[in-house]
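hey can u check if this looks right to u? its 229 residues, i copy pasted from the old doc so theres a chance i mangled smth
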Amino acid sequence: MLDKRNMSYNAVPLPDHVSLSDEEAIARAAEYRTQLSKRHTVRDFTDRPVPRKIIEDCIMAAGSAPSGANHQPWFFAAISDQALKQRVREEAEIEERKFYARGTDDEWIKALEPIGTNAEKPHLTTAPWLIVVFAQKWGEFEDGTRYKNYYVPESVGIATGFLISALHEAGLSMLTHTPNPMKFLNAALDRPASEKPIMILTVGHAAEDATVPEVAKYKKPLDKIARFY
């Protein structure tokens, strides 16, 4: 929470200065690329427990992300309670059934066909953790007065990327899930109106017989995602 009494600028020395040789940097970049290339979105999880400390550290890594005016406009609701996961699944599947009832003529549903998804979401109760990502539209000072948050979608998107990378680094698998609408998550998790649910991350260990869609193995080459000027 921001301190309304202390909003002045005060510069301090860079606390963690990293200086690598070009050779070291090239090696580190290649290693990180290889590590992330092994991340795969899965829908088949085991119920093997994941220690809470791992989730805490991954969320703290996400919390170190840059944000507009350093307001850190995010909140991560980590759920391991089975009854609460069941509630989230039931309400999410209600919205999913409405979505898939639109039929195969719907452009979005047709785009999902190679992915092989449907309205059933057993991963929401099988995996040991769900992390619901919320975006905070505004914040509050200690006296209850509001302050505006800036670049909220961009900031939350960066933090979520940090979180996904951290979870992968910890040897965990995950799945992004975005039922629409998601307002039921505010009620289920007792979150205020200032927060908008962005996505559910299903987190745990992939099942031994887990599969991925063949199309998901295709990633655009460098010349399709970047241009150097």
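The chain has a mean pLDDT of 94.
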